Amino acid sequence: MVETIFVPRGAEERAVRSAMPAGSKVRVVTMGIGPRAAARAADDALARAHFGTALITGLCGTLSPAFVVGDTLVYREIVSAHGPTVELDADLARALARLLPGGQTGIRAVASDRIVERSVDKYALGARYAASAVDMESYALASALARAGVTVGVVRVASDAVGDDLPELGRALDGSGGMDDFALALAFMRSPRAAARLIANATKSLRALSATVRALLATH
Q: Is residue 195 part of a domain?
């Protein structure tokens, strides 16, 4: 059902790879954080091989109190302030949802070009776009892949609740779509309580991401 998986490199990539069955022929394509890194990953993947279906996965933020950390969200569409709404393939979304009995379906997500750190901004973003989730890569990826004729599904796992303030992670982003370790450590030191919650949530959400991928690839 899925030929290629796109996932941010680092902890999310490791969670995905650890869940893949032995001998799986599903290709994993990694990317940096943010829309530019995602667009580059899509272009590189399309240049290297032909594939008809793709799954975009990883973590996301939630914009609604209806969802909690660790929830699996199957996107229906992604909106953006910078382009038309991307409608994900409905048949693929239903097929993915059938493999995820506890998954939340029909999710309207919004693209962001920055990490949404403050809870007040999450509430405002959710209200403005009537969206329940936010991430930085899915819109750019899905747009590029769809233009190339690839059938795309997006399944993300909630890593922070709408009421959670995050450390100032945006300051730690570097130009390549990665995190500067020193800047990240400073962000954690400035907001120790938010950092502790982020670490605990990451452990839970990455475990859920592995379980999600394991369920999706059980028949591959």
A: no
What's the token pair of residue 124?
A: 């405002």
How many structural domains is the chain composed of?
Answer: 1
User: Which DSSP letter does residue 71 get?
Assistant: -
State which amino acid sits at residue 100: L
Going by C-alpha positions, the residue among 70, 104, 109 that lies closest to residue 88 is 109
**What letter would DSSP give residue 32?**
-
The pair of three-digit structure tokens given for residue 88, joined into one six-digit string: 């994900």
Residue 44 in this model has a pLDDT that exceeds 90 = yes
| CATH code for the domain of 159 | 3.40.50.1580
Read off the amino acid at residue 85.
Answer: T
191 in a structural domain: no
The token duo for 78 is 């992604």
| Beta carbons within 10 angstroms of residue 68's beta carbon | 13
Range of the domain at 110: 4-166+206-216
Question: What does the buried/exposed string (b/e) look like for 148-186 if buried means 16 or more CB atoms within 10 Å of the residue's CB?
Answer: eebbbbbbbbbbbbbebbbbbbeebbeeebbbeeebbee
Q: What is the dihedral of CA 84, 86, 87, 93, to 10 degrees?
A: -170
Q: Which amino acid is at 173?
A: L
Cα distance between residue 177 and residue 85, in whole Å? 24
- Helix (H), strand (E) at residue 181: helix 181-190
**Whole-angstrom Cα distance, residue 100 to residue 25?**
21
Residue 182 pLDDT grade (very low, low, confident, very high; cuts 50, 70, 90): confident
Average pLDDT on 162-177 reads: 86
